[in-house]
Amino acid sequence: MASPCQILAILVLSTFVFSSLSSATYPPRRPFKKIYAFGDSYTDTGNTRTATGPIIFNYVSNPPYGVTYFHHSTNRYSDGRIVIDFVAEALSLPFLPPYVNHTADTSHGVNFAVAGATAVKHSFFVKNNLTLNLVPQSLQTQLNWFNKLLESKESKEDLDDALIWVGEIGANDYSCSVGSHFPRKTIQHLGINSHTRFLRAVLNKGAKYIVVQGLPPMGCITYSFMISSPDDRDDLGCVASMNKQVSTHNAELQAKLNILREEFPKSVIVYADFYNAHLTVLKNAKKYGFKELFKACCGYGGRMYNFDFFNSCGSPSSSSCDNPSQYINWDGAHFTEAVYKVMADSFLNGTDCHPPFNYLLNKKLQSG
After folding, report:
1. Which of 260, 117, 124, 144 lies closest to 189, judged by CA?
2. Coiled coil: which residue ranges (predicted)?
3. 151: which of 44, 160, 280, 299 is 20 to 30 A away, CA to CA?
């Protein structure tokens, strides 16, 4: 049973977490000493640069990336901060440095996420000639980096005080299989199994507090409209077949998380529902101040989507909108800072984490 002091600490921290993310008031002590993040471009804070990123979105080092908050490119795929940045701020921690920055201060955590990364190993895609827009890094690469860090600097005690944030992973696996002979069900099976092996490996290392993001509704992301039939739409105007695939993927992932919870009862594993968090933004766009649901703020061509695969954001021919905060989509595949802030709030303070993020925080405080 928690002591009176622990209960008071829980109440103080709960009050903080359920306040606005923009608040400058932080809890009297940090619930976690560090964060380790994994994933793809939705979580990457700089492991990918223009010279190493996915071919289609290969200008991330150029303006106007980063224009809203940092006022220069930080190699984040947005106009500003992304979800993991808001998570770090909410937990009174500095932004996570990318793993490839070997001179950065890693005392408060490291970000291993890589734009374009896949859940399945890179060698599988090479073997099957599925290398369009593919980078060589996968979840296995990120696990190898994580292991090297643990061997060189960290200890089991450090993991006891660390939050593991596994951003979405797997969307690139599906994108690479578009137009191939591989059934999407096969890609799903391989991706989920790889994701599960990764999580089990991290848990075996001693991780106690893990948040795992599911996939977003890929059918609602701008580029999906360019590679699908106009007849393949749902009630929101999104690509129906893609969202159906994502729904089955996320359901299978959650089933695997339930198995891992039974295997590791001393760890807290939270599912962050990226899919419904995004749909909530779409359905309540006016409430959040968004005027453009699908049109990219930064891109080329204007018209309905302002997106062209060969003239993506940051390229010499591209241009950006005056007010990114009115747009949901930033560059045709990624979101604006304004959207990431809403989503982070829905994970930390809202109903899109299962169990709620506050449950994880309470468990951490009770553990001392």
Report:
1. 124
2. none
3. 44
- Identified catalytic residue from 108, 249, 278, 334: 334
Residue pLDDT, tens place only, 100-153:
999 999 999 999 999 999 999 988 888 888 766 678 999 999 999 999 998 887
Separation of alpha carbons 107 and 281, rounded Å: 34
Which residue in 85, 173, 273, 331 is the catalytic one? 331
b/e burial code for range 232-248 (CB count within 10 A of at least 16 → b): eeeeeebbbbbbebbee
Residue with tokens 């393949």: 232
Q: How far apart are the first and last CA of the chain?
A: 12
Sequential DSSP letters for 175-218:
HHTTTSSS-HHHHHHHHHHHHHHHHHHHHHTT--EEEEE----G
pLDDT tens by residue, 183-211: 888 999 999 999 999 999 999 999 999 99
- Whether 102 is a known active-site residue: answer no
C-alpha–C-alpha distance, residues 326 and 67, integer Å? 15
Its pTM stands at 0.91
Tell me if residue 195 is catalytic.
Answer: no
CA gap 118, 124 in Å, rounded = 10
The 8-class DSSP code of residue 332 comes to S
Is 334 catalytic? The answer is yes
Q: DSSP label at 233?
A: B
